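Researcher: Sequence recovery benchmark, item below. Answer with residues only.
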């Protein structure tokens, strides 16, 4: 049956595809590319075709595409038709694709292209028309593409070009790139790892000065930089970060006026002699930003004394030098506002080294070997950002930051701090960002109960905290982002007062998770209305198993505007049905490495706005939890690295808004159970099944490793063709037959069915019931109960002394109704049917009447008395075929006709009850005088 049902669904799916006339070119079964998912769709659809071993540009790319990544392939050649009519393409990446040749006119139609990346290829030659049509390109990467010759008109079409990287090519003569300097909007030119031996402006014949502002140049062979002509009046940055030569390079700029706009100079390695670098620095009278890396020799010789004499200098980068062997002294650099000393091997910063920098706003001391906060920091009253992370600091003093009252960002993460007293930062009233993660802090001594009205981001994760106490963060009224980790309990009372919290991340390593809030503070927690993102991450225990515990219901019910929920390493026990009852705005749900194999549809009922669902590495075996799951808004569904074998395509079709489906790394079965899903992947024109053409078979064994979409499902269709015919033929005939029966024989069948039931009960009950327990069973409708009690019972039971059976009084409680009716009819000598219009409309009265009628004709005894309370035309008795026939043939009792003589009426009833049971030819089956 299951196989037949699946074949039927296959047939229906094929029929829908045929009726819909699906155009294969519009489907989302992409063999070579992936459409990048966009939470907020834009007109620029992005395709990722990278790293697919492509030898040509895929023809499945639509002409309306906005972005294409074709990097890391084996294209070899770009042809003239590859991008024809793609007038909306804005971004094209062809990096590392072994491109050797680009046909002339290949980019002609790319009139909207802004970024073209052609780096790390084998272009060799740039022809005069290679960039034809690219008048709107602003970024062009040609680095490491083995370019050797450039036609003098190659760049003439790039009238909007601002950024060009030509580094790593085999260009030996500056004149080869002369046309670049004439581009009207050129801003940045990269020439690192070039083949230039000299860079002399006198060799350039330009019709007008260049607009170039930033020049990055280096070469293993560069021996001389000479700027002797005013062709770079706007040049602001010279980057010489990669010049490796044995002989020192010459830097020739005789006229200081030619360097009047130079504000940035980047130098790496000691490419000049010490005397020449001093001379160069002193000639740059507008320099504001100086970067010196891997120049420890220069610094040891005292170059910083020269540097500090540059009056315009504001930013100094000295990262990636080594200062272990000598003392660093920057006491004369009082003009600096930014100083980077990261990764310099500093074990200590001598007192007085930076204390004179009264204007310093940014200081980076990260990735060194400092064991304490340098003393000089106490004097940096203008400091706004301090990075002292990734050091060996184990203890903080209350005086370390006493004078840095303007500090806005403080990074102390990745140290060895164990004790953190509130006096350490109590003077930092302007603090907005504080990172104390990755230390050994055991408690905060009520640090954050003190008011930090401006603190917005706090990270205290990966410490040795066992408990976060109640009201721990009550002084952080402006906090927007909180990241914490505790080993034991997290008392939710600690969140009291965080009215502006938007992003909350919890790292947890214990099996116990969240302690419910104190009842007195629960109402305060309901102020977490601005929280939009919650992340709960459990550390793996020693057995590498997921944590079995509950995320506090009280925590989630305070977050009525929660939009993003992410959990890592949790088990099914926490996923109760009403978990998100108070989070109807949830839009994104991610569960990673979580044992949720028993997930059910009730879990999703409270979150109808869910647009993104990602469940990976979580032992999911089936998609049944998606059936009737209230996920009509779901657009993104990722179920990677699970154990799914069979996908029912009808479940996927129940998600009407689904645009993106990722089932990579599952245990897919290549047999007829997945045939319909395979057809759906190939034909649907709404949902993209990401990398479907790369899915492989896990079952059966003989198919293992083969491609999922290569499974030949034709046998599945052939096997079912005859079954389709038989099934559909039978379905049509059955539908017609049922329609005929319902229209013409409805009431006949109903009556026959009731007689059959009466026969069954008669056969079973006849011998087990003592006869004549009652003189008569009264069958009546509840609407006529008042007449029975007011008129009938006083006469028949009171005056005449008959024993009557009434359903409300004599039916046995707990017994099925149909059995009570049967027992009452067969244990009574007679059955009195009190007939009214309500009686005729009652199902149970109809059954009582039919049961008594069956007894009448089965036993051939005079057992039935019809008593009409209303004048009812014979045509109204038609649904009750047997009654109409008997009324026409026999007499009956009529209460409306006896209104004037009720005494006579009750005498006739008495006479009917006295009549014997033997039925003769002269005996009326329906006792009573009169007629219709």
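Model:
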């Amino acid at each position: 049956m299951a196989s037949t049902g699946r074949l039927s669904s296959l047939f229906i799916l094929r029929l829908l595809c045929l009726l819909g006339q699906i155009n294969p070119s519009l489907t989302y079964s992409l063999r070579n590319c992936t459409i990048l998912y966009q939470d907020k769709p834009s007109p620029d659809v992005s395709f990722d075709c990278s790293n697919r071993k492509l030898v040509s540009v895929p023809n499945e790319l639509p002409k309306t595409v906005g972005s294409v990544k074709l990097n890391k392939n084996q294209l070899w050649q770009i042809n003239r038709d590859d991008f024809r009519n793609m007038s909306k393409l804005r971004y094209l990446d062809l990096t590392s694709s072994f491109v050797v040749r680009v046909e002339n006119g290949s980019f002609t139609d790319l009139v909207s292209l802004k970024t073209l990346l052609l780096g790390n290829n084998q272009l060799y030659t740039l022809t005069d028309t290679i960039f034809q049509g690219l008048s709107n390109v602003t970024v062009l990467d040609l680095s490491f593409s083995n370019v050797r010759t450039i036609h003098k008109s190659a760049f003439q079409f790039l009238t909007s070009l601002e950024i060009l990287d030509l580094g790593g090519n085999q260009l030996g003569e500056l004149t080869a790139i002369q046309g670049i300097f004439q581009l009207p909007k050129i801003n940045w030119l990269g020439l690192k790892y070039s083949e230039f031996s000299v860079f002399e402006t006198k060799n350039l014949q330009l019709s007008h000065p260049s607009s170039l502002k930033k020049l990055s140049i280096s070469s293993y062979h560069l021996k001389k930089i000479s700027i002797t002509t005013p062709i770079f009046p706007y040049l602001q940055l010279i980057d010489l970060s990669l010049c490796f030569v044995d002989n020192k390079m010459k830097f020739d700029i005789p006229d200081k006026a030619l360097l009047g706009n130079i504000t940035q100079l980047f130098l790496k390695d000691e490419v000049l002699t010490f005397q020449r670098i001093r001379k160069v620095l002193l000639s740059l009278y507008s320099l504001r930003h100086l970067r010196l890396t891997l120049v420890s020799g220069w610094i040891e010789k005292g170059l910083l004394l020269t540097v500090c004499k540059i009056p315009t200098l504001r930013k100094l980068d000295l990262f990636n030098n080594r200062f272990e062997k000598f003392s660093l002294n920057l006491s004369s650099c009082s003009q600096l506002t930014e100083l980077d000393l990261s990764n310099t091997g500093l074990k200590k910063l001598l007192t007085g080294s930076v204390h004179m920098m009264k204007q310093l706003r940014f200081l980076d001391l990260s990735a060194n070997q400092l064991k304490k906060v340098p003393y000089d920091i106490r004097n940096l009253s203008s400091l706004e950002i301090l990075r002292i992370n990734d050091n060996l600091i184990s203890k903080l003093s209350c005086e370390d930051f006493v004078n840095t009252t303007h500090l806005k960002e403080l990074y102390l993460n990745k140290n060895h701090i164990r004790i953190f007293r509130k006096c350490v930062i109590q003077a930092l009233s302007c603090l907005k960002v504080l990172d104390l993660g990755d230390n050994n802090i055991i408690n905060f001594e009520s640090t954050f109960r003190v008011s930090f009205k401006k603190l917005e981001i706090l990270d205290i994760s990966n410490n040795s905290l066992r408990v976060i106490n109640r009201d721990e963060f009550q002084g952080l009224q402006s906090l927007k982002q909180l990241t914490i980790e505790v080993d034991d309990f997290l008392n939710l009372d600690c969140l009291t007062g965080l009215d502006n919290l938007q992003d909350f991340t919890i790292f947890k390593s214990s099996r116990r998770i969240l302690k419910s809030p104190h009842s007195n503070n629960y109402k305060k927690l309901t102020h977490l209305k601005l929280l939009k993102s919650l992340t709960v991450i459990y550390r793996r225990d020693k057995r590498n198993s997921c944590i079995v515990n509950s995320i506090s219901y009280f925590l989630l019910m305070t977050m009525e505007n929660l939009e993003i929920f992410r959990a890592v390493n949790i088990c099914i026990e926490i996923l109760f049905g009403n978990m998100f009852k108070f989070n109807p705005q949830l839009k994104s749900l991610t569960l990673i490495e979580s044992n949720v194999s028993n997930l059910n549809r009730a879990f999703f009922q409270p979150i109808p706005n869910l647009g993104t669902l990602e469940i990976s590495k979580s032992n999911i075996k089936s998609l049944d939890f998606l059936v009737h799951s209230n996920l009509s808004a779901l657009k993104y569904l990722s179920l990677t690295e699970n154990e799914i074998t069979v996908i029912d395509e009808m479940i996927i079709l129940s998600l009407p808004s689904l645009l993106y489906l990722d089932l990579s790394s599952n245990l897919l079965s290549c047999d007829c159970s997945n045939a319909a899903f395979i057809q759906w992947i190939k034909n649907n024109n709404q949902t993209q099944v990401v990398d479907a053409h790369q899915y492989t078979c896990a079952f059966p064994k003989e198919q293992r490793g083969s491609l999922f979409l290569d499974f030949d499902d034709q046998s599945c269709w052939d096997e079912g063709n005859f079954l389709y015919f038989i099934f559909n033929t039978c379905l049509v005939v059955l539908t017609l037959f049922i329609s005929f029966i319902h229209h013409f024989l409805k009431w006949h069948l109903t009556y026959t069915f009731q007689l059959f039931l009466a026969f069954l009960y008669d056969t079973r009950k006849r011998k087990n019931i003592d006869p004549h327990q009652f003189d008569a069973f009264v069958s009546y409708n509840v609407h006529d109960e008042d007449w029975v009690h007011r008129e009938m019972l006083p006469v028949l039971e009171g005056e005449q002394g008959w024993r009557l059976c009434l359903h409300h009084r004599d039916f046995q409680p707990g017994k099925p109704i149909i059995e009570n009716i049967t027992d009452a009819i067969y244990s009574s000598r007679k059955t009195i049917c009190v007939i009214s219009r309500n009686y005729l409309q009652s199902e149970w009265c109809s059954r009582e009447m039919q049961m008594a009628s069956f007894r009448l004709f089965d036993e051939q005894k005079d057992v039935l008395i019809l008593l009409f309370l209303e004048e009812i035309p014979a045509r109204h008795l038609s649904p009750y075929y047997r009654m109409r026939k008997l009324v026409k043939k026999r007499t009956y009792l009529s209460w409306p006709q006896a209104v004037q003589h009720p005494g006579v009426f009750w005498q006739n009833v008495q006479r009917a009850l006295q009549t014997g049971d033997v039925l003769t030819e002269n005996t009326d089956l329906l006792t009573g005088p009169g007629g219709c």
